[in-house]
């Protein structure tokens, strides 16, 4: 198992008199260069404004209806994207909020007219949809994606904002946990709609948003697995009583994501984790089940695939703490292995 961790550790630096200095090529982000050039040239990206929009729900229409209620009465709510009109509010270009469960998202994309796909706002709660969205060319700077930290009461329909105020950073800027973030073409439209209704939201660049998505994904993965091995503890209870285990697993993941996803997380992940756990408890958010078949592909299932990929290459796990906990849970019958017998045998 140690091989996996070592593979994702920083290389040791040569020291002492006569140590050679060697220059290596580094990963370059062409979009960052493009953005900086645009800044130097005074080119400003047009910020979209809220306007009459389409909200597509699935088996559960709660979020679609709730977000439409934030509008001015001229939105369109549908239970199938096949019904999307050519114009809304007299405009042929308009936001289309995809308010469906993760298992319904690919079917929605396939049913969406190709000329309208760039107008989709993919609403997520930390699901690792990146591989699926890339297949459709919907995972870039211009595509609109949102990590949602809000919900609507199932009976009253009243909006619930999960935001946690963490005070200010060293520069005096406010910092938050569990804040809804959105990126892409229609980010400004969603931002305006939520803020007008006193809901917290931040519109940010794609690469910053990607870190937020990964952070939410790992929160759900780590807290659900640690909680499952402690008599089904909730996320709030895990944050109160099992911080050491969360930190160990987070460090294991942090090494992995630097190598596999080329992402370096910002300082303070643990602080945000504890705040997210507290928000989950205060707002009664359910803790994900490790073996939930609907969520498995987007959370634990995704990381299982990553771990098995590197195990074949390196001979050991790249996220050994997570793998140890998962295997123990299966061995003790705490949860079921959602993989089929053929996949388990291949692993």
Summing up helix and strand content along with how strands pair, one would put the structural category as alpha/beta
Strand order of the largest sheet: 2-1-3-4-5-10-11
Summarize the biggest pleated sheet. Answer: 7 strands, mixed
- Give the CA-based shape: globular
Query: Taking all residues together, what is the mean pLDDT?
Result: 88
Helix content: 40-55%
Distance between the termini: 15 Å
Low-confidence stretches: 1-29, 342-347
Beta percentage is 5-15%
What does the radius of gyration come to?
Answer: 22 Å
State the total count of DSSP E strands: 11
How many separate helices?
13
SSE order, one letter for each helix or strand: HHEHEEHEHEEEEEEHEHHHHHHH
Describe the SSE topology.
Blueprint: H1 2-7, H2 30-40, E1 54-57, H3 62-69, E2 76-78, E3 96-99, H4 102-111, E4 120-124, H5 130-135, E5 144-147, E6 150-152, E7 159-161, E8 164-168, E9 174-177, E10 181-183, H6 187-196, E11 202-203, H7 206-228, H8 235-241, H9 243-260, H10 269-282, H11 300-314, H12 320-331, H13 341-346
Parallel strand pairs: 1-2, 1-3, 3-4, 4-5, 10-11
Antiparallel strand pairs: 5-10, 6-7, 8-9
Helix pairs in contact: 7-8, 7-9, 7-12, 8-10
């Amino acid at each position: 198992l140690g091989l996996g961790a070592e593979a994702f550790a920083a290389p040791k630096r040569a020291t002492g008199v006569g140590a050679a200095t060697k220059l290596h090529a580094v990963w370059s982000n062409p979009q960052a260069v493009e953005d900086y050039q645009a800044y130097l040239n005074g080119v400003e990206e047009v910020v979209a404004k809220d306007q009459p929009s389409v909200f597509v729900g699935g088996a559960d229409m709660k979020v679609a209806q709730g977000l439409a209620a934030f509008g001015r009465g001229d939105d369109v709510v549908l239970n199938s994207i096949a019904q999307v009109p050519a114009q809304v509010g007299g405009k042929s270009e308009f936001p289309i909020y995809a308010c469906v469960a993760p298992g319904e998202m690919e079917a929605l994309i396939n049913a969406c007219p190709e000329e309208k796909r760039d107008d989709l706002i993919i609403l997520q709660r930390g699901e690792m949809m990146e591989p699926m969205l890339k297949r459709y060319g919907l995972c870039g700077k211009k595509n609109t994606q949102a990590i949602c930290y809000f919900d609507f009461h199932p009976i009253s329909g009243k909006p619930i904002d999960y935001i946690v105020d963490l005070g200010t950073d060293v520069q005096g800027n406010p910092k938050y946990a569990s804040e809804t973030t959105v990126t892409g073409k229609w980010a400004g439209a969603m931002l305006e709609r939520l803020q007008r209704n006193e809901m917290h939201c931040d519109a940010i660049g794609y690469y910053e948003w990607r870190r937020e998505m990964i952070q939410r994904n790992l929160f759900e993965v780590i807290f659900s697995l640690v909680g499952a091995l402690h008599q089904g503890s909730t996320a709030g209870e895990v944050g109160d009583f099992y911080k050491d285990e969360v930190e160990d697993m987070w460090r294991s993941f942090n090494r992995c994501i630097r190598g596999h996803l080329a992402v370096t997380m910002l300082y303070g992940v643990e602080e945000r984790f504890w705040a997210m756990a507290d928000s989950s408890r205060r707002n009664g958010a359910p803790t994900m089940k490790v073996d939930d078949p609907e969520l498995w592909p987007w959370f634990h299932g995704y990381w299982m695939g990553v771990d098995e990929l590197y195990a074949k290459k390196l001979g050991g796990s790249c996220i050994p703490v997570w793998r140890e906990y998962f295997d123990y849970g299966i061995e003790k019958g705490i949860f079921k292995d959602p993989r089929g017998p053929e996949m388990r045998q291949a692993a």
